[in-house]
Design a protein that fits this description.
This is FtsX-like permease family protein. It comes from Nonomuraea phyllanthi. It is a single chain. By secondary structure, the chain is an alpha+beta fold. It has two domains: 250 residues, no CATH class; 189 residues, no CATH class. Helices cover 56% and strands 13% of the residues. The chain is built from 15 helices and ten strands. Strands 1, 2, 3, 4, 5, 6, 7, 8, 9 and 10 form a ten-stranded mixed beta sheet that branches. A hairpin with a 7-residue loop joins β6 and β7. α4 packs antiparallel against α14, α12 crosses α13 and α12 packs antiparallel against α14. The two termini are 62 Å apart.
Length: 493
């Protein structure tokens, strides 16, 4: 058992629990016994709210630390977020006070709630800071993970449309190749089967033809280039890859030009190809050939189609040894096992899946965590606020205020706490999240002022749910659960 992390988490829990118990106890000890016994809630004394100067200084320190941590690593970015969090926490009481001053033109229920929150700055600030911290963590992790996912998807081009089954025959002879075609027709009934070409040298050795890619973050093209195998074929395979007939692309293919579906592959009207021998006995060859950009069958599809004349120019031969089918078998692994068992291990099948959607589960987990933390802190603060405002709410009902007004007042309390915390957390989380993208997706850079390029992808749906959806949900639930029956209490002078 890793005792270090376990004891660290346990110590953090003990300190957090003691802090959560001591702070309310200190606040309670400062209340007037006369006010408590008479049922009147204590109000925070007017004056300076929090420590805005200290908070601003810590925020600036956190921003500088984040800039310094860009090229250090993930742990450095997390450490740099600590002064930023403390700075925002120190600024929250001042923000609560400023919000109360701006409540004069709000409708009555909102005005009552916001001003009550400003009068009880300590109570409101504690809950707002908790919501802020939770929102900041969710936003930062969401931006970092979404950026990492975007980079990986950009570097994983789809050479064929999603949902395509490819069967590669290797060096089968003509008789076994014909048998493989019949086998594929039987296994993939009703599928559109299109033949592709495989490259070989004069001795019949298999050769893989690949196109040169560059990483999204490449500032040194020679260092960050990599190669991805591409289909070789004729106009029938082109129509299969495009999902229809394209006369311009078909004419270019017939003229010996490579048809490219990703414009970033083309440099000065040409594309770089590499021919590599599968047995590794012959050095790979690279060549640049004319290329034309055409539309792909799907938005996520990239790559290119290499015509047979290009192989001839490289001194290679082309034979039909690849099958493409627009159907996915019910059990892809069973098909691959059956293909290998029937025709040998050099014959295999591959199913091209679509974009990886596993990141959606991570986003849902983050949203669930935010739901628990934000709603928990908001409801705790709203419950205390409703108890403190009970006499005011009862008086409001006594002078003719309908039950809806009481619900709106409580709902506005929840919206004030969760909304302000979510907005402040969004600002801090965006800074930390963008800083987190450098150690997660950077490919180069080591200087303070040049941390290297990065990929920044914002999970807009997650941010909308956390910053807008959760405060709205908190307000709705708090309003529906609010007590609407007045219970007038005896007032004491």
């Amino acid at each position: 058992m890793p005792w270090g992390p376990v004891l660290g988490v346990a110590a953090l829990g003990v300190v957090s629990g003691l802090t959560a118990a001591v702070v309310p106890a200190i606040q309670a000890s400062r209340q007037s016994p006369v006010q408590v016994l008479s049922g009147r809630a204590a109000v925070d004394l007017p004056g300076r709210a929090g420590r805005p100067v200290l908070g601003a200084a810590l925020v600036l320190l956190g921003l500088a630390a984040n800039a310094f941590a860009l090229h250090r690593g993930t742990l450095s970015v997390l450490v740099a977020a600590v002064p930023l969090v403390f700075g925002l926490v120190a600024l929250v009481p001042w923000l609560v006070q400023v919000t109360g001053r701006l409540a004069g033109r709000l409708p009555l229920p909102l005005r009552l709630s916001v001003r009550d929150a400003a009068r009880h700055r300590v109570r409101t600030s504690s809950a707002t800071a908790a919501v802020m911290a939770a929102t900041m963590g969710v936003v930062a992790v969401g931006i970092g993970f979404q950026s990492l996912y975007a980079q990986r998807e950009a570097e994983r081009p789809l050479a064929v449309p999603a949902g395509t089954t490819t069967i590669t025959a290797g060096t089968l002879d003509e008789q076994k190749w014909a048998a493989l075609r019949e086998f594929a027709r039987a296994e993939l009934r009703g599928a559109n089967l299109v033949s592709g070409l495989a490259a070989t040298d004069a001795q019949g050795n298999s050769v893989t033809v690949s196109v040169a890619y560059q990483t999204v973050l490449a500032d040194d093209p020679a260092q960050h280039r990599y190669y991805v195998p591409m289909p070789v074929g004729d106009a029938r395979l082109l129509a299969f890859l495009q999902g229809g007939h394209d006369a311009r692309a078909a004419a270019a293919l017939a003229a010996g030009q490579v048809v490219v579906f990703d414009p970033s592959l083309v440099r000065d009207g040409t594309v770089e190809l590499r021919a590599s021998w599968d047995d590794g006995t012959t050095p790979a060859r690279t060549l640049r050939v004319p290329a034309v950009v055409a539309r792909a069958g799907s938005a996520a599809q990239g790559g290119a189609l290499v015509p047979e004349p290009v192989l001839a120019r490289a001194g290679l031969k082309a034979v039909e040894r690849v099958l493409y089918a627009d159907e996915v078998p019910a059990d892809p692994s069973r098909l691959d096992t059956k293909v290998r068992a029937t025709f040998g291990d050099r014959v295999f099948s591959v199913v091209q899946e679509g974009l990886d959607r596993s990141h959606l589960m991570v986003m849902l987990i983050l949203l669930a965590a935010a739901l628990v933390l934000v709603l928990g802190g908001t409801f705790a603060a709203t419950g205390l606020a409703a108890a403190d405002m009970r006499q005011d709410l009862d008086t409001l009902s006594a002078v003719g205020g309908p039950p809806l007004v009481r619900r709106l007042v409580v709902a506005a309390q929840a919206a004030c706490v969760s909304g302000l915390g979510a907005l402040v957390g969004l600002a801090g989380g965006t800074v930390s999240g963008i800083a987190l993208t450098w150690p997660l997706t950077r490919s180069s850079g080591a200087e303070l002022l040049d941390p290297g390029p990065t990929v920044i992808a914002i999970p807009w749906a997650l941010l909308a749910w956390v910053v807008v959806g959760l405060p709205a949900l908190a307000a709705l639930v708090a309003g529906l659960c609010a007590r609407t029956r007045p219970a007038l209490a005896r007032r004491m002078a």
